[in-house]
Amino acid sequence: QVQLQESGPGLVKPSETLSLTCTVSAGSIGGSYWNWIRQAPGKGLEWIAYIHYTGSTNYNPSLRSRVTISLDTSRNQFSLKLSSVTAADTAVYYCARSLLRQPADYWGQGTLVTVSS
Amino acid sequence: EIVLTQSPATLSLSPGERATLSCRASQSVSSAYLAWYQQKPGQAPRLLIYGVSTRATGIPDRFSGSGSGTDFTLAITRLEPEDFAVYYCQYYDHSPYTFGQGTNLEFK
Questions:
Q1: Among A4, A5, A30, B13, which one has the highest count of C-beta atoms within 10 angstroms of its own C-beta?
Q2: Closest Cβ opposite residue B56 in set A44, A61, A105
Q3: pLDDT at position A93, please?
Q4: Is the CB of B44 less than 8 angstroms away from the CB of A108?
């Protein structure tokens, strides 16, 4: 079954860019939608964006101006960049897979990113 | 944007009892795109139910979903100790794919 693993810095300074990568294993990037979802400490879930294996993207309007999602099919990876971060961006960031018109069914374990100087 | 409101915020029950969790949408939504997740501390969410009432792979039949329009329900019959967790509903028809704020199902 599909496995996902997030990687990236656990600490980012305010105003800088948060960069995370999700590596997909035991499955192909093809045919699926690849999502980023976050959860602030003690809070609920917030969908950030997805990228389709064809390269089409969809962003949460509340974050659209600061988010870029990209795909590297040769490495079976997709990535998230979130610019101009503040303490409010401190969260566990999850990558997840979904299929067309379906909810996320496979998730990574999540990675905590703290925004602090 | 669809806003999902879950109630109660906390539900205190004992193993063997029945749990009923509510998710109300700010406007009528298509039933085809309502999901429920379970999340335990330190873990990623786990998909339980999609399309309002279809159980995801490997989900026991004590979990069931129902509802339409603006009101949706997750029911858990005969609570097992491993069922005590936080539950989220999600609407995934169109962006942004919003989640409810969660219901914490705790031991009484």
A1: A4
A2: A105
A3: 98
A4: yes
Query: In the predicted model, is pLDDT for residue A66 greater than 80?
Result: yes
Cβ distance of A102 and B99 shorter than 8 Å:
no
| B6 and B35 Cβ atoms separated by less than 8 Å | no
CA B68 to mean position of chain CA atoms: 14
The mean pLDDT of A79-106, rounded to a whole number, is: 96
Contact status of A56 with chain B (Cβ, < 8 Å): no
Task: Name every chain A residue with its beta carbon within 8 A of the beta carbon of B95.
Answer: 47, 58-61
**Banded model confidence at residue A31, pLDDT cuts 50, 70, 90:** confident
Distances (CA, A) of A84 to A8, A36, A45, A58, B52: 17, 18, 21, 20, 38
Measured in degrees and rounded to the nearest 5, phi and psi for residue A100 equal -55, 125
Of all residues in chain A, the percent with pLDDT exceeding 70 is 100
The answer to whether B13 touches B39, Cβ cutoff 8 Å, is no
Q: Is B43 on the interface with A (CB under 8 A)?
A: yes
Average confidence (pLDDT) over A62-72:
96
CB contact under 8 A, B32 and A94: no
